[in-house]
Amino acid sequence: LGAAENVLDPVLDSAGEELQTGVNYYVMSIIWGAGGGGLILVQNWNGSICPLDVGQSSSDMDYGLPLTFWPLENDDVVRVNTDLHKIKFSSTTTICDQSTAWEVADYDESVGRVVTTGGAGGTFVNRFRIEKHNGFPSLRAYKFVYCVAKMVCQDIGIFGQNGIRRLALRQQPHAVMFVKAEGSQIRKVTSDFTS
């Protein structure tokens, strides 16, 4: 087989366009209403301010904050089932003096492993991926997974705690779609850190 025949399918946004490397996208729940809205930054699960965790707005009318995606391989598009070097909230100023790139926090008995920020990008053995979500075959539905050593991958779902929805490693994946963020849609970050 030639190299061109081994290329994986691109991730498609809500308009059916290829997900572009380094371009702003909102990550929205594929389920409207009770499924919640877009991804946001929330107070750390343990009550500290920093690092901020990756959460989900409870309102399906809130697109959340735009993110950019950076594949490990030098590619202009993000492809299904390929390792991502970095997932990062873009143009976001926060009270924490650290990166808004995703990473997975150490295991805690009460919450498991939560997706948080402060990462520098994927390590040699730990990476995020975007995969097709098989629960919605007629839609452009995807899920995030977190892989260790390219062999053991776990779905990323929603963990609710004290009224705050956080991304965490879970058996039930959170089904998402990607909506390209137009310049006029990007809003200034205002985070509410109340419990």
Automatic annotation (TrEMBL):
Residues 52-130 form the FHA domain. One of its GO terms (molecular function) is endopeptidase inhibitor activity. The lineage of its organism: Eukaryota, Viridiplantae, Streptophyta, Embryophyta, Tracheophyta. It comes from Davidia involucrata. Transmembrane segments: none annotated. InterPro entries: FHA_dom (IPR000253), Kunitz_inhibitor_STI-like_sf (IPR011065), Prot_inh_Kunz-lg (IPR002160). This is Putative tumor-related protein. Belongs to the protease inhibitor I3 (leguminous Kunitz-type inhibitor) family. Pfam families: Kunitz_legume.
